[in-house]
């Protein structure tokens, strides 16, 4: 440790000698001045740790000295004023100029020694405290910089995550979030911190999220649920939200951490698939009904074909079993073939449509006319009179819109194929 320097400023030599005698065995380096002017010069030169100052001196008194010195609380020295008995105004003025300690005349050497020790120790302690404060401030600055760097890194890290992330305190106020969460709410991160979900969402949606938060704070653990967020422009997003509590070092719940996953497209796709599924079920139902109707129609057609063959073809073929004359046999074969052709052709179906309203006999006569049979041949094959055949032909022309027109009936019928 350095040797403390003590400056004694007093115009009386007896006082200077007494002070020297009192302090010579304390291990201090002593300096002396006879007035304030010498004292200021020495003060600037030696930078003492302690100064004893007499107030009443020639050339420059103690008050002028103090006004020039301008004592400040953090100065590395102390000034002890030496004053006479009853000089309270001088004491008061000295206090105003920054002096904290006083010695009254006549001086006590023991008091001088004790006060000098106290002042030197006090300034040494203040210096130690300042060093500790400086070290502490440096440490705090370093730790703060490291903490800010760590926070910056952590914020950069969560900002790089595309999933919206946020965290709240137990009052359910947002303490922070990443860029994805801020973008989801169409706000800057600084506009979210310190606010609650009621500041971000409509009251009904905010209340639903808050119920989950309160339950987690009471019960702890983790919660996953589906929620929604609706912006002011009406655009709504469906979210899958995962929340969990976080605790301090003592195990007490400190708040919530949450992550939101946008499942809007998934929900819409599911809704579309559900709608499509319903549509397909309706189509399948219609197809089953249609298939049933087609099967029923097919069965009816098959029955009609079998019936027609049995009624219009088989009788003519059965006649051949009796081996009739060749001419009659030919007629039976032609009749059977004509009926088969009529059964398998769509021509009779068109003739029997509701628009034409032809009778079965008229359809049969139309078949023979189309085949080129004369009235006589048709009458013989149908076992009718020629007048009956002519009657049916006239009805055909009338229903086909040919009456009074010079249009060949057979040609017209063939054009209907």
Describe the 3D structure.
By secondary structure, this protein is of the alpha/beta class. The protein has 3 domains: 5-132, Rossmann fold (3-Layer(aba) Sandwich); 161-262, Beta-Lactamase; 345-415, Arc Repressor Mutant, subunit A (Orthogonal Bundle). The protein contains 15 helices and 10 strands. The strands form 2 sheets. The protein has a 5-stranded parallel beta sheet with strand order 2-1-3-4-5, sandwiched between helices. Strand 6 and strand 7 (174-177) form a beta hairpin. The longest helix is centred in the last third of the chain and has 56 residues, at 264-319. The chain is rod-shaped and about 185 Å long. The model has no long low-confidence stretch (mean pLDDT 85).
SS strand fraction: 15-25%
* CATH topology group of the largest domain: Rossmann fold
Instruction: Examine the secondary-structure arrangement and name the CATH architecture of the largest domain.
Output: 3-Layer(aba) Sandwich
- The CATH C-level class name of the largest domain: Alpha Beta
**Low-pLDDT sequence parts:** none
The CATH superfamily name of the largest domain is Response regulator
What order do the SSEs take from the amino end to the carboxyl end, as H and E? EHEHEHEHEHEEHHHEEEHHHHHHH
Distance between the termini: 133 Å
What does the main sheet amount to? 5 strands, parallel
Percentage of helical residues? 55-70%
Mean pLDDT: 85
Specify the structural class: alpha/beta
Strand numbers in spatial order across the main sheet: 2-1-3-4-5
Number of domains: 3
**Structure summary, number of beta strands:** 10
Cα shape: rod-shaped
Rg of Cα set: 62 Å
Helix tally?
15
């Amino acid at each position: 440790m350095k040797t403390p320097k003590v400056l004694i400023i007093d115009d009386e030599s007896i006082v200077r000698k007494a002070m020297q005698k009192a302090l010579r065995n304390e291990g201090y380096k002593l300096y002396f001045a006879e007035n304030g002017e010498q004292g200021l010069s020495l003060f600037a030169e030696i930078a003492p740790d302690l100064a004893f100052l007499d107030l009443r001196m020639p050339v420059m008194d103690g008050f002028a000295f103090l006004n020039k010195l301008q004592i400040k609380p953090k100065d590395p020295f102390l000034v002890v004023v030496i004053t006479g008995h009853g000089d309270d105004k001088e004491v008061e003025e000295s206090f105003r100029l920054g002096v904290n300690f006083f010695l009254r005349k006549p001086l006590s050497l023991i008091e001088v020694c004790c006060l000098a020790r106290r002042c030197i120790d006090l300034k040494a302690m203040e210096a130690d405290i300042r060093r500790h404060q400086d070290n502490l401030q440096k440490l705090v600055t370093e730790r703060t910089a490291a903490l800010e760097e760590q926070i910056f890194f952590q914020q950069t890290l969560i900002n790089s995550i595309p999933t919206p992330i946020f965290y709240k305190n137990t009052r359910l106020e947002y303490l922070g979030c990443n860029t994805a969460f801020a973008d989801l709410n169409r706000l800057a991160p600084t506009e979210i911190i310190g606010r609650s979900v009621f500041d971000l969402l409509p009251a009904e949606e905010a209340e639903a999220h808050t119920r989950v938060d309160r339950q987690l704070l009471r019960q702890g653990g983790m919660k996953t649920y589906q929620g929604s967020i609706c912006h002011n422009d009406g655009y709504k997003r469906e979210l899958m939200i995962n929340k969990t509590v976080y605790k301090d070092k003592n195990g007490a719940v400190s708040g919530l951490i949450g992550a939101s996953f946008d499942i809007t497209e998934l929900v819409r796709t599911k809704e579309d698939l559900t709608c499509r599924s319903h549509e397909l079920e309706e189509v399948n139902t219609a197809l089953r009904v249609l298939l049933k109707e087609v099967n029923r129609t097919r069965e009816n057609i098959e029955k009609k074909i079998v019936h027609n063959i049995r009624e219009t073809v088989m009788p003519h073929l059965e006649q051949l079993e009796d081996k009739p004359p060749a001419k009659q046999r030919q007629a039976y074969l032609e009749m059977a073939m004509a009926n088969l052709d009529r059964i398998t052709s769509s021509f009779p179906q068109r003739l029997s449509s509701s628009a034409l309203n032809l009778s079965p006999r008229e359809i049969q006569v139309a078949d023979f006319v189309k085949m080129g049979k004369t009235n006589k041949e048709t009458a013989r094959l149908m076992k009718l009179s020629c007048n009956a055949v002519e009657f049916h032909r006239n009805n055909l022309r009338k229903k086909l819109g040919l009456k009074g027109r010079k249009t060949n009936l057979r040609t017209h019928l063939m054009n209907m194929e």
